[in-house]
């Protein structure tokens, strides 16, 4: 049995989790309603959370309980606005994965960004990031920083069920 567990703030992670659970015939579980002991009944756990300040939302559930049972498989998908880079992958792994989770694959998916739907706190954090980027010469900006600046203030949505194919391939092996 497979469980897709997710924590979503603005909806992108929820959309991916719903598509994934449907494609796999898996149970769909909301992070806030899941206790670690419930996860022991599953052979495969796929966890999804949004990326906020380098952390994967709600991943503490897995950090505190994995491996819950011998033979369980684990995969994690992280959803953010920026495209994946080797640096962002390395940072997510080091900040969010414990040694027990080291063998689990990390899938990075692009979500959506809508400044109009952000909380005041998130808008303030984004504005601080923009101020920092404004001070950085454009030729020194990383690709994701240039991309973010080009999208500033607009709603953008990169969610696509096709982005789930690598996870589906992993789950079916």
Structural write-up:
There is one protein chain. This protein has two domains: 130 residues, Flavodoxin domain (Rossmann fold), CATH 3.40.50; 40 residues, no CATH class. With 173 residues, the chain is an alpha/beta fold. The longest helix is centred in the last third of the chain and has 16 residues. Strand 3 and strand 4 form a beta hairpin. The protein is built from six helices and eight strands.
Distance between the termini: 14 Å
CATH superfamily of the largest domain: Flavodoxin domain
CATH architecture of the largest domain: 3-Layer(aba) Sandwich
For the record, the count of structural domains works out to 2
Q: How many strands in all? A: 8
Strand content: 15-25%
What order do the helices and strands follow?
EHEEEHEHEEHHEH
CATH fold field value of the largest domain: Rossmann fold
- Envelope shape: elongated
Q: Helix fraction? A: 25-40%
Calculate the mean pLDDT score and round it: 90
Query: Based on helices, strands and strand pairing, what is the structural class?
Result: alpha/beta
The biggest sheet amounts to: 6 strands, mixed
InterPro entries: Flavodoxin/NO_synth (IPR008254), Flavodoxin_CS (IPR001226), Flavodoxin_dom (IPR026816), Flavoprotein-like_sf (IPR029039), Protoporphyrinogen_IX_DH (IPR052200)
Domain Flavodoxin-like: 2-149
GO molecular function, one term: oxidoreductase activity, acting on NAD(P)H
Pfam families: Flavodoxin_5
Give the helices and strands, then pairings:
Elements: E1 2-7, H1 12-24, E2 27-30, E3 44-52, E4 55-56, H2 60-65, E5 73-80, H3 86-96, E6 106-110, E7 112-113, H4 120-135, H5 143-151, E8 156-157, H6 165-172
Parallel strand pairs: 1-2, 1-3, 3-5, 5-6
Antiparallel strand pairs: 3-4, 7-8
Pfam families: Flavodoxin_5
GO molecular function, one term: FMN binding
Domain Flavodoxin-like: 2-149
């Amino acid at each position: 049995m497979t469980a897709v567990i997710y924590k979503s703030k603005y909806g992108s992670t929820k959309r991916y989790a719903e598509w994934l659970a449907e494609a796999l015939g898996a149970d769909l579980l909301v992070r806030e309603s899941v206790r670690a002991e419930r996860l022991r009944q599953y052979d495969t756990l796929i966890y999804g959370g949004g990326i906020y300040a380098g952390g994967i939302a709600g991943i503490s559930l897995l950090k505190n309980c994995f491996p819950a049972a011998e033979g369980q498989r684990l995969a994690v998908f992280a959803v953010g606005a920026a495209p994946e880079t080797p640096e962002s992958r390395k940072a997510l792994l080091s900040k969010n994965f414990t040694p027990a989770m080291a063998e689990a694959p990390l899938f990075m998916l692009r979500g959506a960004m809508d400044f109009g739907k952000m909380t005041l706190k998130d808008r303030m954090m984004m504005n601080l990031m923009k101020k920092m980027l404004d001070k950085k010469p454009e030729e020194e900006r990383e690709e994701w920083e240039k991309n973010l600046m080009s999208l500033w203030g607009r709603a953008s949505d990169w969610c696509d069920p096709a982005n789930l194919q690598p996870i589906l391939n992993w789950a079916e092996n």
